[in-house]
Amino acid sequence: MKYITTAFVCALVLSSLLLAPAPALAQTWPAKPVKIIASSGAGGAADIVARLIAERLAPALGQPVIVDNKPGVGGHLGAEMVARSAADGYTLLMSGSPTHSVGPHLYKNLNYDPMRDVPPVAMLAAAPNLLVVNASLPVTSLEQLVQLARARPNQLNYSSAGNGTSGHLAAEQLKSMARVDISHVPYKSGPEAVTGVLSGDITFLFFTLPSVLPQVRAGKLRALAISSAMRSPLAADVPTVAESGYKDFEVLAWYGLFAPRGVPREIIARLSTEIEKILRQPDIREKLAQLGAEPKFMTPEQLTAFVAEESPRWGRLIRASGAKAD
After folding, report:
1. How far apart are CA 205 and CA 216, in angstroms?
2. Distances 37 to 141, 176, 259 between C-alpha atoms, Å
């Protein structure tokens, strides 16, 4: 009887230990540095937004918040790393539509399900894309670029930071609306895609405003249009794609924070709350505006609903255009 009693007590203790981790973890979290894996390369928009948020999230959490860049495979390289990480709140993902709204339509053999395995924590911001060409290209408007594409079918190309990025989708939507044949050249990161245009190897690209505006101002790139519904104060002389003749055209890059499936709800709630506070800070809003981005907070539930609405729209465009992962 004594043996049975002891074994029974041990079983109870073990069972309590197995049931306790999530609440206990939530109460002590964070007890060490938190890592945010950015799905873009250094200097890409997701990287810039991640570092801006990490700078303010660190004092709010009382622990360092480190940004680690893992570009590649349209953002899925970093996203899958987070999906395989421990569900303890110490590894997060900064990404957006490339992985969560678009990826499932482009990559048929993903080893994970983005929304299931790396669910939302919060949406942070959204930003338009500038359509830019090398300054030496003899076109000064979007219509001139389209006319050049029609005169040289299948001879022009565009770059992107990878399949499924907002720049890829913006170009595919333009191709569909303008009915032109232009080749897609995906790169592993945004900076590499921009370099392709700077070198003259690539005709044009749509890329997030904060990442290409310095080259436009330096005279190395020429901005022909912006992908938002309204002009940006940072590039007020650049017309929208819609103003250039393509009605209702709007493609925005959005940035959200995600976490591995199974992270305790208390940790997700705290992260979401802290991010909402950060996005209310006037200087953060001003810094985002200077980058051409707009604060756009959403709770985990709101972001989940947003993706559920956005994803089918991009799926239809991808199927109609024939776009696919290389």
Report:
1. 13
2. 37, 33, 10
Residue 19 maps to a domain: no
CATH code for position 294:
3.40.190.150
Express each pLDDT in 87-115 by its tens digit: 999 999 999 988 999 988 988 889 999 99
b/e sequence 164-188, b meaning 16+ C-beta within 10 Å: bbbbbbbbbbbbeebebebebbbbb
Q: Across the strands, what pairs with 240?
A: 226
Conformational region of residue 248, where left means phi above 0, alpha means psi within -120 to 50, and beta covers everything else: left
Q: Is the pLDDT of residue 28 over 60?
A: yes
pLDDT digits (tens, 9 = 90+) for 268-288: 999 999 999 999 999 999 989
Same domain, 150 and 200: yes
> Which residues touch 39 (CB under 8 Å, ≥6 apart)?
46, 70, 71, 75, 76, 77, 78, 79, 93, 94, 95, 96, 98, 99
Q: Is residue 62 part of a domain?
A: yes
Please state the pTM of the whole predicted model: 0.79
